[in-house]
Write a structure and sequence with these properties.
- Residues 82-233 form the GAF domain.
- The protein is α+β, with helices and mostly antiparallel strands and 639 residues long.
- Helix content is 57%, strand content 16%.
- The strands form three sheets. A six-stranded antiparallel sheet has the order 3-2-1-6-5-4.
- The longest helix is centred in the N-terminal third of the chain and has 42 residues, at 37-78.
- The radius of gyration is 35 Å and the shape is elongated.
- The protein starts with 7 loop residues before the first helix and ends in a 5-residue tail after the last helix.
Length: 639
Amino acid sequence: MSVMSSPVEFLELLAREAAPVEFEGPLVAARAAGLPAERLAELEQAKLVALRVRALLERRRRRETELSGLYDTASDLAGLRDLDDVLRAIVHRARILLGTDVAYMTLNDDERGDTYMRVTDGSISARFQRLRLEMGDGLGGLVAQTGTPYVTSNYQEDERFRHTGEIDGGVGEEGLVAILGVPLRLGSSVIGVLYAANRSARPFAREEVSLLVSLAAHAAVAIDTARLLAETRSALEELSAANSTIRAHSSSVERAAAAHDRMTALVVRGGGMEDVAAAVTEVLGGALLALDAEGRRLARVGEIEEPDRADIVEAVAASRTEGRSVRRGPLWYAAVVAGAENLGALVLRPDGELVDADQRILERAALVTALLLLFRRTVAEAEGRVRGELLDDLIARPLRDTDALRSRARRLGVDLDAPHVLVAVGDDAIAATGSARQRVLSWATTYASTRGGLAAARDGRVVLMLPGQDAGGAARAVARDLSRVTGRPVTAGASGPSTGPASLAVTFAEAERCLTALGALGRAGQGASTAELGFVGLLLGAVGDSGDRDVDRFLTATVGPVVDYDARRGTALVKTLEAYFGVGGSLARAAELLHVHVNTVTQRLERVGQLLGADWQRPERALEVQLALRLHRLRTPPG
């Protein structure tokens, strides 16, 4: 490698997706070439950054693969009708998605009261493939009995499970070490267990557990659909005398399958909540309301009144407990859940009675809704992180490549060469628990992105970059709206407008000084800009935490007697002083401005002299008095 080793070489390694060990190459070459220590330190830092970028890209690539796999799984299962084909497809997809040595499935035998091996993928042991597990025996029997996912990195040494000779022998002959098992749920019942296993010790990450749970949810629905279709075919063959009843049942089953296929296709196409609601009402008729976990409306199709909040909470709790949709009066409720997390509810007002298959359609719609909400959350979180990282880079010093920053901003729909204002939100907005801080940042991210701007957390504060030229208006709007969200007064200082990435760091510093000045002026819970505070704001912005006390002492010592005199007697000495200084010391012009006689102005100024001392008009005293008057005016914001 050339002695001209530089950080660019790490970009080339990233571009060709080199292995981690190859990132040591530029450093080895640089040391061999005898480059100075500072160049070696620079290359070491560049290597570490490049490896972090590689790890981030790898995680995102893996997440994309998992989501794509879920989509593909939903699409594949929707096209299968034979139960054996469904089971084989599920197990094979589980092994591929989690990248394990073996995947298998056991189904519960209600007659014998145990669970037995039904399908395997990657297995080589005949003994293992014939295993039957009593409820509570081994990892699989415990999952089947409790309906709870279990994971072990070394099964043979894990004492949480009831070991038996038959089970341990089969697992040992297969050579399995690490095992993850999740229940196949159908409503409130567990119909089997889906496993992913390795022949070496391996910890399963929480994301992998969640992925297998999602796949198991798809699998249970697909198994149920396949079973229903098989039962329908059998009934048509065996019960020809009950042809009309069979036909009606078949119709409902086909309707359920068609609805499932359609909703799966919606997920694949990236459809929204309105599309899911429309699909359900087209199949079942009536009207449907989709709500989030806070009871806010996500979508509505048809005429349906929103139930009382208490009724919604009770019905959703019952639906979650039973694992099925529940009826309350004329309405049907289906909880929208992901694992133990409540995401919302679907409320259906059907035109007629719902049969069991119709209820399944509503429940499948709730499952699809949960997937859409989770996907939407993942996308929003990813976009929020990208936007926050961009803003953090824009206000950092020294500023990096401005052309690259412009390119990143354009991909997010932000024009850095357009006028923007920077708004710094005070610590009072996030001086709470971690969840409250995250809620504030989430609100700021949404607030900024909907307006074509950016938001980020920086040095314990939240900063927003918003398009426009009215910095003061933006600060007041942020303070007002965020105060409603947090339920506590929020202070916001702003500066700008700023054009171009190079000026944003300076504008951010000015916004922070404005925020400090507002605190010194006693205007916590309000919003203002540096332009509105003027030179006084610039002075106070550098004062620090003691600014409020310093301002109080200065005002009391300089114009305190005049302010107190006005407060006690209802006079206008402060107003007269402001007018007098504002017209350059002209008595006649001050009288005209105040709409009073010149003698009145003279008498008022004589009273000021008695209160402040005869030397109050000397240049150095006059400057202090004017500054104090300005501070006094800023302490009472306009409007």
